[in-house]
Each structure stands twice: as C-alpha cells, then as structure tokens.
Amino acid sequence: MVDAEKTDVNNNGFSVVMITLLKGVVYADENVKLWQNLLSFQARIRDYVREIGLELVIYEDEGFAWLQTATSHEGQTDLPRLVMKRPLSYPVSLLLALLRRKLAEHDASSSESRLILGRDEIVEMVKTFLPSGSNEARLVDQIDTCINKVIELGFARRLRSENNKIEVRRLLKAFVDAQWLNDFDTHLKTYLSSVQSGTTDENGE
Q1: Which of 58, 59, 128, 151 has its CA 20 to 30 A from that of 39?
Q2: Taking the model in full, what pTM does it have?
C-alpha cells in the first residue's frame, strides 16, 4: 500500500513537471519543489520526450530548463519546431544585445546573481543607439514597446513590488551567445552608418 502511494506521488510529480515544461521555461527561483523534481526526474523526462522528438535542456547552475525540438541527424527528416522562430525588430535585437552585455558585466563585478535595472536606465542605454528625431516622447514609447517585447519573450520580468524595475532573466545567456553578439556587432555598425546618413527610420528598417 505504501509503495503504491509512493508511486502515485512520483507519477503526479513527474506529470506536473512535464506539463510545466510543455508550457515553457521552468525556473528554479519560481518553484523550488518543481525544480527539485525536474532534476530528480531528468533521466525519465529525457526518455519520455525523446519519443516525441524533443530534448530537455537544463542549465542547472543558472537555474532554468526548457524543452526544444531534438536536433535532426543526417538522413532524418527535420521535425517541426516546438516554438516557431520569429524575426525580431532591430531595436528589440539591440536591447537584447545591450542587456546581455550588461549581464556579463554584472557577473564579472558582482556576487549577486540577479541583475535588476531601472526602466529609465534601460531607456537611456538604448537611446544612445537610436535616431532621436524630433519627438522625444515617441522615442521613449518605442523603447518601452521593446522592453515589453523582451518581457513577453521571457528574457526579463518586472518586479511585482516595483513596476519600474526590470530583472534581466539569466535565460538570456542561453540564447544570446558570443557568436550572436559578434554577428550583431557587424549589423550594428551598418545600422549606425545608415542612421548617420539618414537612411534608417525609427524602427531600424
């Protein structure tokens, strides 16, 4: 009887972890028990999702995990992506690059794992790289839209206690790597040249 109850509890814990993973990223700091269960069940999870063409990605030191479409090998048919790739506007890409660099600087100079920035600080950081035009309010609104997009993508979140404070999620490190930043630097130089020549609009197009 005890063994049966233990099995039911384990199955329930596994199911909760799987359902949460299928919904999106799992963070250690949001649900400690769920995270511990994920680590405990990770071998079982990998076996389970492999059957449906997925793989489990865990950044244990950083405290997050998610599911992604398994890499296709030579001779295999490419599987549909679990999450569709969507092109990002230039200002959003710029903000991601700036936040990623800010996160690297923070990690190098602080023992605190969380990077929290003020909304005004982010606005000033991005303004440097965007054409100012004649409408300051419109430019700030554009940057606010970019901040909201980054939050929607899961790379940042607003603090509940202070809505004007933004926490940069460590998930950003997994998606914006050194190669991405190097490629973006090349595009940024082209973009800044076009801004100086007046051939780029406010959306970076």
Answers
A1: 151
A2: 0.73
